[in-house]
Prior knowledge:
- The mean pLDDT is 86.
- By secondary structure, the chain is mainly α.
- Helix content is 65%, strand content 5%.
- α1 (2-31) packs antiparallel against α3 (44-64).
- It is elongated and about 75 Å long.
- A hairpin with a 6-residue loop joins β1 (101-103) and β2.
Amino acid sequence: MGVSNNITATLNFIALLASIPIIVAGIWLASKADNECTHYFRWPVVILGVLILLVCLAGFVGAYWNRQGLLAFYLICMAILIALLLILLVFAFIVTRSDGAYPVQGRGYKEYRLDGFSQWLRDHITNSKNWGKIRTCLADSDVCAKLTQNYMAADQFYSAHISPLQSGCCKPPTACGYTYVNPTLWLNPVSPMADPDCLLWNNDQSQLCYNCNSCKAGLLGNLRKEWRKVNVILIVAVVVLIWVYVIACSAFKNAQTEELFRRYKQGWV
């Protein structure tokens, strides 16, 4: 029984370590400008990571000090958390599967169409009810100000690999034919009717293209790009946690069997 508990304690320590990348990935997501302005995707990864860490700590204590009730609690809670993590993963893959990006000739960056992203993202993040607050939050951030600090000449900006959010919110669509002055100042559109966003562009630094559909699409493009990166970490963590959980269940079962066998022998003695 002691051997089984030692195995379980070791496995829980490994699972505890596996929760750390989940928490770090969640904090990285929450710190991004687009996630600071939205609420749906900001904290669930951090919360799940912290819960997994606490449950693994409980499992480690239960195994190390042979607290069978705590071990049983750990196994039940861990099963629930792994299921929630899998649901989050599947959900994130589904809603970020569609990509509204399209290349622009002569540009290093891409531009984005709102209808290229999933219906759920459009309905819950860029709807009229939520966008007013998001737009204000983006305008107060330094997302576009960074461009004017990093790029001066037009050819330097055109070849830059700027983020989807910057591409959609900080400049007018290329099809409008605006003349470049700096990354957030554009004049004299050649084709102002080429895109509805052409007429929404405003050189006021608090306005820019924050009311444009391209800005909404850029926000979704940023969310998609970041969640695709985090999903890789989550997949590795889930595989480790499932592997640890299966072995821990087997070790717990063996410990229970050994305890029953020990009591049975004592009864005969």
